[in-house]
Design a protein that fits this description.
heterodimer, A: 107 residues, mainly alpha, Helix Hairpins, 3 helices, elongated, B: 169 residues, Four Helix Bundle (Hemerythrin (Met), subunit A), 6 helices, 74% helix, globular
Chain lengths: 107, 169
């Protein structure tokens, strides 16, 4: 049978893939995609816990976590829109999306 | 049977997640991300969260990915030509990610709840959009309005950021 641990393991792996993407890739658009992967890994463990903590009275999943996931999806969509607008503005000014070419703020 | 389906969906999600960060071509990365999100939506539905699964397909595989592809084509990003790879930084990043994974997995290994299966539900939750809606509009009414303001601010911010400045002065 599927245990809670299965879902949490898969979620941890997905988060690590996103984390590795942010650490290793040098293209800003790909880094933004990796951020999305990490947010979705968090969503997966939230939904797994929601299904695990069944309400004793109604015997239904705990919907607080699912509402939280709904909020995360909304914020992530807004974040992607703002992030991509920033990339467009950056590309207009500097003609690049490669983070190694953007070193003005580097210490 | 359910376990088999679970690992199919999980493997689909993880393999295409790796493809996102390994592809050199941004368009291929974006399309891999769509497949990865479809696998994730399958997992949501297997957890009886049908509303979240459908939202995942509509918002991520639909709206967000169209935005990504649109920007990739607008900026005309090509497959990156190989640059000199900074090996110490790459190895360091890979090691940090690996250590992080080991640490999270060890925490999950110690969690006693992690070995329990999911308790059964009284009935199918295929109509869970009603339950999510009731929770959203009663317990989380104020955060819901705040999120509306956030989306409005993001919309205005995007318009301001991407507006071309008229010839300076």
């Amino acid at each position: 049978m599927i245990t809670l641990g299965n879902y949490l393991t898969v979620s941890a792996m997905l988060f690590t893939i996103g984390f590795a993407g942010v650490m290793l890739r040098r293209n800003i658009v790909i880094i933004l995609m990796s951020l999305e992967l990490m947010l979705n890994a968090a969503n997966l463990s939230l939904v797994a816990f929601s299904r695990f903590h069944v309400d004793l009275r109604t015997s239904l999943p705990n919907y607080n976590a699912q509402v939280f996931v709904f909020f995360i999806i909304t914020v992530a969509a807004a974040e992607v829109a703002v992030g991509l607008a920033l990339i467009v503005a950056l590309y207009r000014a500097r003609r690049t999306t490669h983070v190694e070419d953007l070193t003005t703020l580097k210490f | 049977m359910q376990l088999f389906l679970f690992w199919c969906a999980a493997l689909l999600m993880l393999v295409f997640g790796v493809a996102v960060i390994l592809n050199r071509n941004p368009v291929a990365s974006a399309l891999s991300l769509v497949v990865s999100f479809l696998g994730l939506a399958t997992l949501f539905m297997m957890l009886d969260a049908y509303f979240i699964g459908i939202i995942q397909v509509l918002v991520y595989a639909g709206a967000v990915m169209v935005l990504f592809l649109f920007i990739i084509m607008l900026l005309d990003l090509r497959a990156e030509n190989l640059r000199k790879i900074n090996w110490p930084a790459t190895a360091g990043g890979a090691v940090v990610a690996f250590v992080f994974l080991i640490q999270v997995l060890s925490v999950i290994g110690r969690l006693t709840d992690a070995k329990k299966t999911f308790p059964p539900l009284a009935r199918s939750t295929i109509d869970d959009v009603r339950n999510v809606g009731v929770t959203l509009f009663t317990n989380f009414n104020f955060p819901f309005q705040v999120i509306g303001v956030l989306v409005l601010v993001a919309t205005i911010g995007v318009v301001v950021l991407s507006k071309r400045e008229l010839a300076n002065k």
